[in-house]
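User: My collaborator sent over this chain with a note saying "see what the structure looks like." That's all I know about it. Can you take a look?
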Amino acid sequence: MGKINREALYTDESSVYRIPFEANTGDRVTLRFRTAKDNVDKVFVISGDQRWAMKKVCSRGRFDYYETYVDVETETIHYFFEVRSGEERLFYNKKKVTDDLQSDYSFGIVPGFSTPDWAKGAVMYQIYVDRFCNGDPSNDVLTGEYSYIDEQVEHIDDWNQYPKAMDVRCFYGGDLQGILDKLDYLQDLGIEVIYMNPIFVSPSNHKYDCQDYDYIDPHFTVIKNDGGELLPPGELNNQKATKYIRRVVSKENLEASNQFFIHFVEEVHKRGMRVLLDGVFNHCGSFNKWLDRERLYEGDGDYEKGAYVSDKSPYRDFFKFNNIHEWPYNEYYDGWWGHKTLPKLYYENSRELYDYIMGIGRKWVSPPYNVDGWRLDVAADLGFSEEFNHKFWKDFRRNVKEANPEAVIFAEHYGNAAAWLRGDEWDSVMNYDTFMEPVTWYLTGMEKHSDAYNPALLNNMEVFLETLENKAPAFYGQSFLVAMNQLSNHDHSRFLTRTNHKVGRVGELGSEAAEEGVSKAVFREAIAIMLTWQGAPTIYYGDEAGVCGFTDPDSRRTYPWGHEDKELIRYHKELIRIRRENPACRWGCAQGLYTEGGYLSYGRFLDGNYVVTVVNNTEEGKKMEIPVWIIEVPDKVLMRRHILSTEDGFTLEEANYLVSEGKIEIYMLPHSAAVLSYTEEKMSETPAKSENMFSKFRGRKRDRRKAEGPKGPYRQPYRRNYS
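Assistant: Without extra context I'll predict from the sequence alone. Here is the result:
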């Protein structure tokens, strides 16, 4: 037969090559594997010390398809493949083809692990609420309303003013009414999910220092009962901030705020969109009612004494105090990374706190609020030990999924998250490892904070592919399809700013520098990748309108209503439309096609729908020969170009490319990106849909298995001991 065609070998953890994609105990799972037609002698599945043969069940075009099945019990089944042709033997796992027998990077069937279908590949939109749109000026934080970190807070009257270098106490007035006012815009853009940075009561504009987990901040909703006084000039004692106390401590205002939020979620849901909340459970804020370092709650009979105020507080065990002789007003509590404004929560010491936060996890995904999931801040830091951290998130998942099985759980995490992605903790993560970081380095040579520029990584395909190869296996397929893929967010510089290769932060370079020398052409390349990549593309508010900015706080600029880059918005909108019209972009398999230097092409394929993305990130034009046969595109068909971005802009003018001998030729201008597709008229003939090709074999083997009875731990026909 000759040498094994390595490029033709393929399988993955998708609904095409594993059926059902998400399995439960007791299910029979069909595994599939693809080879070049008449190219191999045998294909085996290896799991642990066992190996069993697969059966060739059909051929189509250039490929043969092999199949077997496995019965799922209670434990995760790890497996990979062996391919033989004569004396040649190869193995195939999550890192693709390898010459070495190894169980590392195995595929996995995790009984009971599923992620919500609505979240798989969904187009998300992250909103930093204070900076998106001011829909109700009557709820704005006022200058002098209270003090925060040794200065009074400030209302910024000029919506278009750049953020200050110390921005945390500056408020522009964005609120939930502002989001409601712009739902038409978001819906027209094609957004399916709105993820908001924290919106619970909090004294900062970022609200990662929660004051009260039970209530939405009235400054974001409605202030039903206003009154009280601002602080006098120079006054920092928040006990005198009676207007702030009235606004956020009064139960009347808090209850009205939650009622507004119910209305907010209902309106978003009416549009067919979803809502995600940001949960900050590793730490709270020094203003929190449980600690009450600012003594806002001390004189209110509706609240218990805070742990800062009294050692008799019912919340005393919620925090880790290091000096037990300092009450009243004990300053010696653990803060996250030493920040006194961010007291770390001491779950190991308080079952009451543990249960309370589990209740918060349930509360907001349940009626009457009905939010659709959580994004978890610094989730790996929670607790004082790794063992406890995992116990907490296992319980959190159980509580949330019991309350709302369709709720999704994302976590913020840098580095390998495999330990939390085993099916019983998080659904997925903000995808730094296999999206934001490698894409940023590859297209710009910049670090994601704009803290470094490394020209050796610009267009370095070897490093780009090696990063994906080594880090993508941390995800099971369920997690990968919902991974939050971002180019920018509130913690990093804006991607458009990274294209100017300026190293530094706003305090040293100034705000204007973030806008100088940027490349919208490179940015458009990145957008094309984000909207055709595996996972959930997540647009950071304003990116689509051309907002620039160094890392936070500069990346937290206001949305430029009335000054938007409308062509860039239209580019996003068209790519989202193309994504929606091609299901392969959302659910499909993925394969690299042309990967050399600054030239990148990859394909997505599902049920007869084939999508190819082509990027030229260099200064030179190039004719590229793309081997689309790898993603099963048949010969003598035309692939249609939907969109082409160049240095001058973009066009929707169609162009067609004939597939000849498995390839297309396409000339790509400097700094350009194109998305092409082909869809078969009779998609039922594809392996994923053609039950007549696959089910006959499966049916015969099911009958035989039933007659013979179970055999061994996997009850597998064709099973052999590996030797």
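A starting point for your reply to your collaborator: The chain has 15 helices and 34 strands.
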